[in-house]
Amino acid sequence: MATPLAYQASLPASPEWLNKGDNAWQLAAATLVAIQSMPGLVVLYGSIVKKKWAVNSAFMALYAFAAALIVWVIVGYRMAFGDRLLPFWGKAGPALGQRYLIRRAFLPATPHHYSDGSLETPMVEPFYPQASLVYFEFTFAAITVILLAGSVLGRMNIRAWMAFVPLWLIFSYTVGAFSLWGGGFLYHWGVIDYSGGYVIHLSSGIAGFTAAFWVGPRLKSDRERFSPNNILLTLTGAGLLWLGWSGFNGGAPYAANITSSMAVLNTHVCAATSLLTWTCLDCAFFKKPSVIGAVQGMMTGLVCITPAAGLVQTWAAMVMGVLAGSIPWFSMMILHRKSPLLQRVDDTLAVFHTHAVAGLLGGLLTGLLAEPALCRLILPVPGTKGLFYGGGVMQIVKQVVGALFVIAWNLVATTAILLVIAKFTPLRMPDDQLMIGDDAAHGEEAYALWGDGERYDATRQDTPAAAGGRDEAMRMRSVGEFNGARGVTVQL
């Protein structure tokens, strides 16, 4: 009798059930989503903060990406997409044994029978190796916790963050993922979350806001002025995030099919519409278009369409884009300034507005605009459709209940995790280190430019000015004038 390893060796490289096109697209989509985090959000975070926080902010994203992968393959994947432990949680277990090509990676081993004798809704059955699915779903878990980091940039103790990432993924993220995607009670009840409006964006927005409350605020000087150190790099990170969303929403059907094509088109239409709407509002109220505002509008459009991307027509994606560019704009620019709670909590990158508000908005709009024919292509519960297509008020009720569950769980779980961590290490860096920034946290600086506190030594140059190098002397004078304009003293 063949051993497992020998059996594996006897399998053909491409068995009959393997859909090569779907597998190739799933791996490509996973790579696009991974690029959103690394380097997308690493670059965006490192450039959108003050210079003194560039290294720390980028490292928080980099660390989270690496830590999330190890947690995911050891216990996370099975907790989110494995067998049922509780109605909202799967059984923990490793996803390290990829010796077998597993076709039925998503089918529960023990189907659940309800009290009326009916069988639970069948799960999705992708036609490619389990490894493809494990990696794809990891990229979603990683970006969720990295988005959450945007709320606590510029003051969270890096040691506390290193402990927080694995604990939050295990005790918070996996609950939402299993409940809505992996076979939990919200999945079988018919709550719609196509690609993470609730699981990813509402979760990261609420958890980030909660974490910002417990960690505490930045220094007063940082809160009053926190200008980006490099807006062009911010746009680079934002561009990677936008284009990577093709994999984010396009990979959600687990196949290269009609739904994935609709999702990709709707994603970009909604993002562009939201960006333009946000920019127009900035021009109307503040008289100038803001680059950072445009990035925020892009983000809210991408977030809003995520729970509906493959389930709505393109005209509906444009409607959602207008609302995504205006309602979060109102909550950030108007409501935030009038709310004592929002003013009290120092949410560094306004993750609450760009992700929690936009994610909730997208989930509710999905309950209104989900088109029946598109819903039949992918949703597990027969007859699911938006209110405007005859779905009834019950679909809106389901969307609201799903959102409330995600909000409540993230509030409680995030609070509990941070309070436990606080028993062992401070959540916030001390004020003297906050004054310094990266050098205090990591012993490194983002921009170690020549001239920062150094003295010019002509003897170290190939063509010293003292030896008649007039052009070199003039060049160094220009460097001195440039650095002097930046507040750097250079002696020639």
TrEMBL record:
Record lineage: Eukaryota, Viridiplantae, Streptophyta, Embryophyta, Tracheophyta
Family: Belongs to the ammonia transporter channel (TC 1.A.11.2) family.
Main location: membrane
Species of provenance: Zingiber officinale
NCBIfam families from the UniProt entry: amt
Cellular compartments annotated: Cell membrane; Membrane
Residue stretches making up the Ammonium transporter AmtB-like domain: 24-447
GO cellular component term, pick one: plasma membrane
Transmembrane segments: 24-46, 58-80, 133-153, 165-186, 198-217, 229-248, 254-278, 290-309, 315-335, 356-379, 399-421
Described function: Involved in ammonium transport.
GO function terms (MF aspect): ammonium channel activity
Record's keyword terms, sorted: Ammonia transport, Membrane, Transmembrane, Transmembrane helix, Transport
The protein, known as: Ammonium transporter
One Pfam family per UniProt: Ammonium_transp
Its membrane topology: Multi-pass membrane protein
